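=== RUN LOG ===
request id: a7f3
mode: sequence -> structure
chains: 1
length: 132
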Amino acid sequence: MELQPAQVRALVVDDNQLNRLVAQRLLERLGVSVEIACDGREALDVLAGQSFDVIFMDQHMPEMDGIEATREIRKREGGLSRIVIVAFTACQLEEDRERCFAAGMDDFLGKPVKSAHFSRLIDRWVRRPHCV
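=== RESULT ===
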C-alpha cells in the first residue's frame, strides 16, 4: 500500500536553527509531518515516544553527533525493524559519506537542499520502499 503524503512522518535532527526551519518548511510543503530535534541525544528522546518514517540527521552536532546517534538507533532496533536515516549534512566529501553509511545511515543528502531533493528521497525510501 502506498503511503499518502499526510501519513509520512519525518524527524529532522540538526543543531542549526536555520537549517531546521528550512528543512521543516520544505518537508511540510510536501505534506510531510515534521518533528524537530536539536542534537542526537534529543533525537533519541523523541524516538523513545514516537515513530517516524524517515530521519534526516545532521552529521556534526554538539552533545551527540549524527554518527553516534545513528549507531545508537540501529543498536536499539536490534535488527527487528529499520527506520530510514538520511545523512543531512554540509560535509560532502567521500569519507563523510562512507562514515555515514558505516554508521548505518541509508542515504546522503548534502546541504543546501531544495524541495525536489526531499521529494525524491521521500519517494525512494518511504512512499515506494525497497525490499531489504
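=== NOTES ===
Residues 5-127 form a domain with the Rossmann fold fold (CATH 3.40.50.2300).
The radius of gyration is 13 Å.
=== END ===
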